Amino acid sequence: MTDEATERPPMKSNGVPVTDEMLARLADKAEAGFDLDRLRPRPPGRPRIGSAPAESLSVRFPPEMRHQLHERAEAEHVSEADIIRRAVAEHLARSA
Questions:
Q1: Could you tell me the pTM of the whole model?
Q2: Residue 12: in which H helix or E strand, if any?
Q3: What are 70-89's pLDDT values in tens digits?
Q4: Do residues 86 and 78 touch, judged by C-beta distance below 8 A?
Q5: Taking CA 70 as the corner, what is the angle to CA 92 and CA 79, rounded to the nearest 5 degrees?
Q6: Which residues are CB-contacts of 46 (< 8 A; sequence separation ≥ 6)?
Q7: Shortest CA distance to 56 belongs to which of 26, 96, 85?
Q8: How many helices (DSSP H) and strands (DSSP E) are in the chain?
Q9: Nearest-angstrom CA–CA distance, 16 and 7
Q10: Contact assessment for residue 9 and residue 74, using Cβ atoms and an 8 Å cutoff
C-alpha cells in the first residue's frame, strides 16, 4: 500500500464538473433551510424517456470511438447516453 493519493476523476453534476464554489453555494443553501411547501415529491424510479418506460440496450464501442463519445458528451455537458440517443434518432429520421 502506498501513501500516494489515488487520482480520481472530478465529480460531475449533469455533466458539469463540481467546483468548490458550487459545493459552498449548495451547503449555504442547505444550511439556510428548504421551503418544504415548494419541494415536489418525485415519483419512484427513473424518469420516463418518451411515451413508456425506457429499455436498456448494451452496445460495445471500440476504445477510440468511446473516447470520442466521452469527449463530445463532456463538451456539450450532456450524458453519453444522450449523445447516442440523438445519433440514433437522427439516423432513423434520415433513413425513413
A1: 0.52
A2: strand 12-13
A3: 999 999 999 999 999 999 99
A4: no
A5: 65
A6: 53, 54
A7: 85
A8: 3, 2
A9: 19
A10: no
